[in-house]
C-alpha cells in the first residue's frame, strides 16, 4: 500500500467511525469489547487514553503518517513523556460535537494496535445501531 493510500485509509476510518453519542456507559462497553477481543485473540494489550489523539483530534496512526519527516516530540514542541506518535490511539468523535475522548490499545505493533481499536469501534457502532 502506498503512503497516500494508507493516509486515505486512515482518514476514512476517522470519517466513518463517528458516534451519535458517547457517555461513561459507552466508554465501559467499548473498552470491554477491545479487551475481550484482545484476550480472545491472545494479545496482551493495555487499554488507555492518549494525549496525542486528544490534542490533534486524529488517530496516532494518521499523525504518524503525516509526520514522517518530522517528530514533533523532538525539539521542544511536544513533551515526549506526554505525547506519542505510535499507532493505537483513536479519537472518539461524536456527530455534531467533535472529539470528546480517545481510546488507546498498546502492546502490539502500531498498525495492529490501530486495527484492533478501529475494528472494535466499528463492531461497537454496529451493535449500538442494531
Which key phrases capture this entry?
single chain; 130 residues; alpha+beta; Beta-Lactamase; 4-stranded mixed beta sheet; 5 helices; 4 strands; 15% strand; globular
Description:
- The chain is an alpha+beta fold.
- The protein has one domain: Beta-Lactamase, CATH 3.30.450.150.
- It is built from five helices and four strands; from the N terminus they run αβαβααββα.
- The chain has helices at 3-16, 24-40, 51-56, 60-66, 110-129, and strands spanning 18-19, 46-48, 89-94, 98-106.
- The mean pLDDT is 90.
- In helices, the fraction of residues equals 40-55%
Q: Low-confidence runs (pLDDT<50, min 5 residues)?
A: none
- The shape, in one word, is globular
Number of strands: 4
Give the end-to-end Cα distance, rounded to a whole number of Å. 33 Å
CATH 4th-level superfamily: Haem-degrading domain
The spatial strand order of the largest sheet comes to 1-3-4-2
Task: Give helix and strand order, one letter per element, not per position.
Answer: HEHEHHEEH
Overall SS class: alpha+beta
Q: What is the CATH topology classification name?
A: Beta-Lactamase
Amino acid at each position: 500500500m502506498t503512503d497516500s493510500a494508507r493516509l486515505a485509509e486512515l482518514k476514512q476510518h476517522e470519517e466513518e467511525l463517528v458516534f451519535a453519542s458517547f457517555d461513561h456507559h459507552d466508554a465501559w462497553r467499548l473498552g470491554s469489547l477491545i479487551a475481550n477481543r484482545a484476550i480472545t485473540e491472545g494479545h496482551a494489550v493495555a487499554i488507555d487514553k492518549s494525549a496525542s489523539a486528544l490534542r490533534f483530534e486524529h488517530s496516532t496512526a494518521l499523525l504518524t503518517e503525516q509526520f514522517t519527516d518530522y517528530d514533533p516530540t523532538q525539539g521542544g514542541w511536544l513533551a515526549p513523556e506526554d505525547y506519542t506518535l505510535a499507532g493505537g490511539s483513536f479519537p472518539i468523535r461524536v456527530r455534531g460535537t467533535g472529539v470528546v475522548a480517545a481510546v488507546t490499545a498498546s502492546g502490539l505493533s502500531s498498525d495492529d494496535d490501530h486495527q484492533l481499536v478501529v475494528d472494535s469501534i466499528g463492531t461497537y457502532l454496529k451493535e449500538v445501531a442494531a
